[in-house]
Amino acid sequence: NAGVTQTPKFQVLKTGQSMTLQCAQDMNHNSMYWYRQDPGMGLRLIYYSASEGTTDKGEVPNGYNVSRLNKREFSLRLESAAPSQTSVYFCASSAPGTLGNYGYTFGSGTRLTVV
Amino acid sequence: KQEVTQIPAALSVPEGENLVLNCSFTDSAIYNLQWFRQDPGKGLTSLLLIQSSQREQTSGRLNASLDKSSGRSTLYIAASQPGDSATYLCVAGGGSQGNLIFGKGTKLSVKP
């Protein structure tokens, strides 16, 4: 099925460990995003990539790095995981159209627990 | 700074009722307003996207309206069904890439 695919779906890390969350989309979208969702906070933007080869910080970038490997793939890396990074992470993509018609498609999420 | 507020935070209704979910935003300079549905443990499913130049969008039993001047959007669900039970998120799209501001959602429960 066309859409946004995230791996893994679940992950438990120990404090200080590193890991990379993978995201791929097959809709030929230019823009891709990483969000985190915490109870009572709503979704917050971590990083985004407006187009292949570019990345920019969002609202909560500290502790994360990203790579836009190609048009399809956008990965999120935690270099040294902290308990505060326990969250559900969502990848999304969009295809800009006229007048800012940015319809977004989300992946099913990665549930990360840092102990 | 854009803020999106959704009221109520939770809503429980009997099957068959028509209902309205409310969303307000503080900055009227938005490009679009999108409503999503999120089921427990799942991702976000887009329901309706309203461009800033539009007043409303309809899809099946769903109708979303947008009033930029008052900073409000509503999602109307007709003849609610138990399968409509989910959290509904209102999202305001701003003037630059990545500038999506999410509300905290309304958790809807439709009882048979």
Description:
The complex is a heterodimer of chains A (115) and B (112). By secondary structure, chain A is mostly beta strands. Chain A is 0% helix and 51% strand. In chain A, a hairpin with a 6-residue loop joins strand 5 and strand 6. Chain A starts with a strand and ends with a strand. The relative contact order of chain A is 0.33. In chain B, strands 2, 4, 5, 9, 10 and 11 form a 6-stranded mixed β-sheet that branches. In chain B, strands 1-3-8-7-6 form a 5-stranded antiparallel β-sheet, with no helix packed on it. By secondary structure, chain B is mainly beta. Chain B is 0% helix and 57% strand. In chain B, a hairpin with a 6-residue loop joins strand 9 and strand 10. The chains are: A mainly beta (115), B mainly beta (112). Chains A and B meet through strand 5 and strand 10 of A and strand 4, strand 5 and strand 9 of B.
